[in-house]
Structures are given as structure tokens and as C-alpha cells.
Give the backbone structure.
Amino acid sequence: MKREAKRIRKRQAKMATLIAARLGRDPAPIAVDLPDRDFFSDLERLRRRFKRAEALGYRHANERLVREQVALLKQLRDQVDRCLYAREGSNEQTVHCDRKQIIAELAAIETEFGGIEIDFRSQTVSAVTPEIELDGVCLGRFRICLEVRYLGESRPYRVIALDPECSRDCDETTHPHVQSEALCEGEGAEPIKYALREGRLSDFFTIVRQVLQTYNPDSAYTQLSDWFGVECHDCGSTVDRDDCNSCDRCDAKTCEDCSASCADCDRTVCGNCSESCESCGLRFCDACLSECRECGETNCDDCLTKGICDDCTESASEETEAEKTSAQVAPV
Amino acid sequence: MKILLINASGAGFANHVVIEPGTTTEQLFNKHIGAGRESQYLVRVNRMPVARDQVLQEGDRVSITPLRIEGATA
């Protein structure tokens, strides 16, 4: 056991030497951009839309606008942080990327993740997440693989699904925010960038793990509700997202067999939002159908004359003819 | 006294901050993040989990990482 522990420490020390050398090369300068004034115009615009939606009682619109405001405020906060950092902290090196620190980082990763894999041939350092389950969908474990030779460049790591449960519509999408082993970092982008830049490897691995354990339905390659395909609202069969249609009236998803086009306005409609005209038999959306004033049956505009269907019109004229004939043959 | 604080919510910079001697992890967290939100974050001192009443020392490295960090599509 002691020999094994010593062997592990030796490997970590050797990898730390490689990493420290890589990080010691000229780091990219921090771009200093003052906050864009358009942020404030956008925030003001969102505030006005929010007030309007609130006054009209549009709850869903309100929720969406709040999410947009939060995302915009976070972007503004990040930009302000970057400017402050560049102006206040640029002369002081906050974190030392020396070999001793990197050894401590690798040991911390081993503790945090319950293990660490070091491969000198591929020059990678990897840690494996626990099984990830989001909204009831089991996505399995992921290996976060840091490629030391690419440190200092953008995206020097891959996220590899070890028990892939790919989305039905794309077998490169192994996680709502991972496609082709590339993580879309979202809120994690800045912390990941600075963690790698400063050699804070344990922070890097932890942040990536937390991104993998968080589901953002507003910006996913595939929604988890559609992960295994989309269920047709009408017949219940499961189809690929690309093979389903969306009802223009109620947004329900239907397979190609169950969706129809309104014969009048051409809208795509589901079974619930459409009906056949009782006279001509063609399919129409609810908005293009009316009830006959006489019999109450559903007809399209072409099959109604002054609100009365062709059948009732014909019946009415037959009755009129019959009455006329009766009147003519009535005994004097 | 000075410690290194890494706040991974936001831009994720590492900054030296000055704290009073005797400041605990919890007090530092409440000051920079806010009381009552501990369950939403991972807090590590010198890369290790610690008790909330641990008293911080000169040169300690404190990292605070949100449990929820939202990814996005490209």
C-alpha cells in the first residue's frame, strides 16, 4: 500500500512538472472591455415589456422575461468583474502556478472525485463524475479529460460519456449541454477560463462537474423531455424530433401521420384543433369551421350559405316545394 | 489578515481579501454570498471541505463554487 501510494505521488509530481511548465508560458492577456452601454438599453426594454406583460396578466411571458433579465444581469456582472480585475489586480499575481501548487491541485482532485487518472502518453489528467441524472433521465458517468498539451488554448479539455445515453435525435449529444465531447460552458465559461489560466485545476474540475449536474432547459441541445424522442399528442407513438410537427393552434407535437393542414388557411393542426366538415369531408382548423344555424353540425365556409349548411338548405327548399304542391291540389 | 478568495459564481476570479482575525468560514461566506444559502454552494478551504465554524488563517485559500452552474448551447 505504501509503495502504491508513493508510486501515485511520483506520477502526480511528474505530471505537475509538465503542467507547471505549460502554464508558465506567456499567459494570454486579459481583454479589458468596459461594459457595453447597450446592456442598459436592453434592460430598460425588458423592464417595459415586463410591466406590459404583468398588466395583461401574461404569466408565462413574465416568467420568460424574468429569465432574460437574469441572464442579461449576469452578463453585465461578469463584464464589470473583468474590468475591475484588470484595473485593480493586474500587478499582483494572485495564484502561483508553481509545481508544488499543482501537486496539491492534483491531490485535491483525487480527494474530491475519489480518484484521478494520469496518462503520460496522451498527456491527460482525468477525473470521473458520479452518475448524472437530470429530470429523471440517467445520463451516466462522464470523464472530464484535461489535455495538458493544449493548456493555454481555448477548450483544452473534453467531456466523454462513459455510459452514453445519447439523445434520440443526435448520437453526438450525450448530455443536454455536451455535444461531440465539447461542453457548452454557459455560466461556467469565465470561472473555467480563469481556473485553467491560474492553474487552479481542482476548481476547474469541480466547476465542470457542477455544469454537468445542472440542467438549463432554456439552452439545451436537446430538451430532456424529448431525450428519447417526442410522443405524438394524438396517437402516442414516439418519433424523432425532426419528424414531428407542431400544431399552430396549441403547440402540441404530432407525428406526420396525425398532423393535418387546414384546407382553408393551411395551418398545421393536431386532432384536437381540427375537424372534418360534415358536408365536404375535408379537414379544417377550428377557426375555419362554423355550426349550421339549423342543425348545429360543423361545416366549412364554402358549405354554408347564410349560416345554413347545404343539407338544411336543400331540406328547406324541399319543404317549401312540398307545401306549394299541397296548396295547389287542396280541394276547393 | 489576508486570504485568497475564489468565488466561482460570476467571473470566478481569485482575489486577496483582508479579513479580521478570528473570522470563520461561515462569516466569510455570509459576507460575500449571503446568509442562508450555504446549501447552494461548495465551500473548500485549502482545497478541502471544512466545518462552517473553522477559523480562517493568514494565507488560507477559500473557494466558493455554486452547485448550480447553467450550461448552454454554443
Observations:
- The radius of gyration of chain A is 33 Å.
- Residues 247-324 of chain A form one domain.
